[in-house]
Design brief:
alpha/beta, Carbamate kinase, eight-stranded mixed β-sheet, six-stranded antiparallel β-sheet, binds aspartic acid, binds magnesium ion, CASTOR_ACT_dom
């Protein structure tokens, strides 16, 4: 039995018209003899009646509802959308059944709001597939060993889909969304951004971590571990979208494509702290950030000091914490992280030179930089972010 997992995001389920498109994709794949597992998100976005954000706002302020109850409220969104879709499928004569995360065998720890999948028992879903049913699974949720509903963290339906796909040894996992796949850059910034036919797991993970919101990076990691291909595609077109696999193109083609895409994360603050004779400065700084739940990024530690970024919204708190520790940190607010992502850049000389060239030509100052085998990051001022993304997109000829 060849199994296909499809995952539909909130906008793909938000209206009757959208759900009819979903029906079309389900019928097409059934006609190709696939056994189908359909993982759904809650319908719509903030403000829509059954969207996750809307439901959570019904529970009063975030503090008033304990984490367990907050999860119990949040899972309702997916339960509603799963049943609405099931109704549509059945009215069209497509045999289908709804399973909650727990019923679909997804066991998690009890980390409400951010639960981790411990194991998946594929049998309950398998039994339904063997009876020829389309199995609709509520995304974003699992069940703890104590029998409580848990959620997998925001954007967790992607993770549900790839985890189920891995457990069932699916042939492929299709992530249906409202864009035509992975683009070389954000089209709101770069007019000639192009859809990519193929990307590697590493590239899409880096793009997603660096601000491209197409798929949750955790979901990609699970697919990569099991080596199951993913497709990111649009519910609203018949295009095939972007195929994500371990080795999308041959070695020579990878080398031709030095960079795959440009991503960006706006609104970050660069903080620098100098040791100035303070003992254990680095340890104190990062321990205190962790203790206050401030996430740090772009970290650069030298014997004389520490340089890192936090989100703009955390900057005041971070500076206050550092001040209380007796440091006099310097801060550059309103920065943006711009990343050049591409597995093809590994071991190729001159990539950083090109980046510096592109930015220098536009008079853009690099405040900080870092690199890994598939990404080079630069920190620039927020007002130069768009120009930086465009210059890099051009320099690496991603529009061609
Ligand atoms: N509905 C959940 C959220 O908004 C999960 C998801 O859509 O992936 O975070
Ligand atoms: Mg999502």
């Amino acid at each position: 039995m060849a199994i296909l997992v499809q995952k539909y995001g909130g906008t793909s389920l938000a209206s009757e018209e959208a759900r009819r498109r979903v029906l079309g994709h389900i019928e097409r794949e059934r006609a190709h003899s696939y056994a189908l597992v359909v993982v759904v998100s809650a319908m719509g976005r903030m403000g829509d009646p059954y969207a996750t954000d809307t439901l959570l706002s019904l529970g009063g302020s975030a503090q008033s509802l304990p984490p367990r109850e907050k999860d119990l409220l949040a899972v309702c969104g997916e339960i509603i959308s799963a049943n609405v879709l099931c109704g549509l499928l059945r009215s069209e004569g497509v045999p289908s059944i709804v399973m909650t995360g727990g019923q679909a065998g997804i066991r998690t720890d009890a980390g409400f709001g951010q639960a981790r999948i411990m194991r998946i028992d594929p049998d309950p879903v398998m039994r339904q597939l063997e009876q020829g049913k389309v199995v609709i699974v509520t995304g974003f949720q699992g069940q703890s060993d104590q029998g409580d509903f848990t959620t997998l963290g925001r954007g967790g339906s992607d993770t549900s889909a790839t985890a189920i796909g891995a457990a069932l040894r699916a042939e492929r996992i299709d992530i249906y969304t409202d864009v035509d796949g992975i683009l070389t850059a954000d089209p709101r910034l770069v007019e000639d951004a192009k859809p990519l036919d193929t990307v590697s797991y590493a590239e899409i993970t880096n793009l997603a971590r660096q601000g491209a919101k197409v798929i949750h990076p955790r979901a990609v990691e699970i697919a990569a571990q099991s080596n199951i291909p993913l497709r990111v595609r649009s519910t609203f077109s018949d295009g095939e979208g972007t195929l994500v696999t371990a080795d999308p193109v041959s070695e020579s083609q990878v080398r031709d494509r030095l960079a795959t895409g440009i991503a960006h994360v706006p609104k970050v603050t660069q903080i620098s702290v100098t040791a100035d004779g303070h003992k254990d400065m680095q340890l104190n700084v990062f321990q205190s950030m962790a203790k206050h739940g401030i996430s740090v990024d772009f970290i650069n530690v030298t014997p004389g000091g520490a340089l890192y970024t936090v989100f703009d919204e955390d900057a005041d708190r971070a500076l206050e914490v550092l001040g209380k520790l007796g440091y006099t940190p310097a801060a550059v607010r309103g920065c943006a992280k711009v990343s050049v992502v591409g597995s093809g850049m590994h071991g190729v000389p001159g990539v950083m030179a090109r980046i510096v060239e592109a930015l220098t030509e536009e008079g853009i100052t690099i405040l900080q930089s870092a690199d890994s085998h598939a990404t080079i990051w630069v920190l620039v001022r927020q007002e130069q972010m768009t120009a930086a993304v465009r210059a890099l997109h051009n320099k690496f000829e991603l529009h061609l």
